[in-house]
Design a protein that fits this description.
Layout: H1 3-22, H2 27-53, H3 66-71, H4 73-104, H5 119-141, H6 156-175, H7 181-202, H8 206-222, H9 226-249, H10 253-263, H11 274-279, H12 282-290, H13 300-309, H14 314-317, H15 324-332, H16 350-381, H17 386-397, H18 400-403, H19 406-438
Helix pairs in contact: 1-2, 1-4, 2-4, 2-8, 2-16, 4-12, 4-16, 5-6, 5-19, 6-7, 6-8, 6-17, 7-8, 7-9, 8-9, 12-16, 13-19, 16-17, 17-19
Length: 462
């Protein structure tokens, strides 16, 4: 099978997944459609560009993989996409089976979202968002804001505080219902703009992509119209286009000159899309898995053990936890690329992680896990307890449903659980303060200045 044929088969799988996903109900439809868009950029758009241009690997060009170039792009991409094709078609089968089951149950009445019934819910989100903005500002002012691929944060406490802004923003985007469309537009525009600014500061696509996905989840709850579909599509395209433009503003002249030299080998029609294509790097992860040549990464027992330990805070565990992104960079990519002088955390991808851990059986297990997490995210967003709702919001923010495997997903959920508990505590404090301020004090005699006039003949001391 040639690379072109592999790309076509991969594209057909994604088309089938899109059709199946559009038949899902509610928020699950949004997640599956987002997966199609995400995986299309990684497994279709990126290979097409490589096969079209056949770029020579050079400094500052992360798109041209030297391993594929050495093999020959045609042969290399054809081999790398084999487990990807299997994984995507297996995922299509899962979604189709779920659609059939869902449709067999008939129409399910839509119930009101539990969090919106609590008056303290939005007050808590607002406080969390303001506190998070403070953390972001201090991180930016002190130069400790993280960046994409960092192994550790310069200041974990500020990083944790900054993440609170993400939870607050996504919660307001998904659940807030202003009285007029003008207020809704202003609110969503402000929150999306702030997430785009933070995306540029931390050099990561995650904040703005999470915000765009949150807008789609919002309309999945309240209903879609042609205007909202076009609006969400416009927001996504604008976010992708603005990401590259705003990112260029931060680059110093020397780095800009080096990047321009690397991009000169690509056609002018492709160059505007290079910044975003470089961010969707699951093809590199699939290449990492292929070059492992069946060598063992970690045992199945280690996978289960580390997945469980990911939910225990490091302070309680008393030991450093397994970091799957860092281990992937050092041990999996490091088996075919010299990573001795590079310290970075990578997205392993569900297909690639499954293939390294258990071949095609591992791919099936990993893709099943990803689909189960989609259903779990839907249930969390409609849960009655605030902690579960916050966990659902973090599943919108962190791209675990798109670019992480079992280990990366449990790792993110473990961090999210600590954040959710903290946000819940903040909300409880805000709610208690509100109840205390609204409490009416018991009446005293000073509340009745005419009491003496109503008690004629009473002694003067009454």
């Amino acid at each position: 099978m040639t690379a072109a044929t592999s790309v076509v088969v991969t594209a057909l799988a994604l088309v089938a997944l899109l059709i199946a996903g559009l038949h899902l109900r509610g928020v699950a439809r949004v997640f599956v459609v987002a997966q199609v868009a995400y995986w299309s950029l990684s497994y279709v758009a990126r290979p097409i560009v490589l096969l079209w241009v056949l770029p020579e690997p050079q400094f500052a060009d992360s798109l041209a993989d030297p391993r594929l170039a050495t093999m020959g792009y045609d042969k290399g991409i054809a081999e790398v996409l084999k487990p990807v094709m299997f994984g995507l078609w297996f995922y299509v089968a899962l979604v189709v089976a779920y659609v059939i089951w869902q449709r067999s149950r008939g129409a399910v009445p839509r119930s009101p979202l539990a969090p919106t019934a609590d008056p303290d819910f939005f007050r808590g989100l607002a406080v969390v968002y303001v506190l998070g903005l403070g953390g972001r500002f201090v991180s930016w002012a002190t130069g400790s804001a993280g960046s994409a691929g960092e192994v550790t944060s310069a200041n974990p406490l500020l990083d944790f505080a900054a993440t609170m802004a993400t939870v607050g923003a996504l919660g307001i985007i998904v659940f807030a219902r202003p009285a007029t469309w003008q207020r809704t537009t202003v609110l969503l525009g402000f929150l999306l703009g702030m997430e785009l600014v933070w995306t540029v500061i931390v050099e990561s696509k995650t904040p703005v992509m999470g915000a765009a996905l949150a807008v789609a989840v919002r309309f999945a709850f309240i209903g879609w119209t042609r205007a909202t579909v076009l609006g969400v599509a416009g927001i996504s395209v604008t976010a992708i286009g603005a990401f590259g433009l705003l990112q260029a503003l931060k680059v110093d002249p020397e780095t800009e000159a080096i990047s321009a030299l690397a991009e000169a080998s690509y056609p002018a029609s492709v160059q505007p899309f290079l910044p975003i294509l470089r961010r969707f790097d699951l093809l590199e992860a699939a290449t990492d898995a292929y070059f492992m040549n069946g060598r063992e990464w970690i045992s199945h027992l280690d996978v289960v053990r580390n997945a469980v330990l990911n939910f225990i805070p490091s302070q309680i565990l008393g030991a450093e936890k397994f970091q799957s992104g860092t281990a992937w960079a050092q041990q999996v990519r490091g088996s075919s690329v010299d990573m001795r002088t590079v310290s970075v955390s990578l997205a392993e991808g569900n297909v690639s992680e499954g293939f390294v851990l258990g071949g095609y059986t591992g791919v099936a297990v990993s893709m099943t896990f990803t689909f189960v997490m989609v259903l779990v995210a839907v249930r969390m967003l409609t849960a009655r307890h605030f902690v579960l709702v916050v966990l659902g919001l973090t599943l919108i923010e962190y791209p675990v449903l798109f670019e992480r495997g079992i280990l990366g997903t449990t790792e993110s959920l473990g961090k999210s659980l600590q954040l959710a508990i903290l946000v819940w505590i903040v909300t409880l404090v805000v709610g208690e303060y509100g109840r205390q301020s609204r409490a009416v004090p018991p009446p005293t005699r000073f509340d009745y200045p005419d009491i003496d006039s109503r008690r004629k003949g009473s002694p003067s001391w009454v």
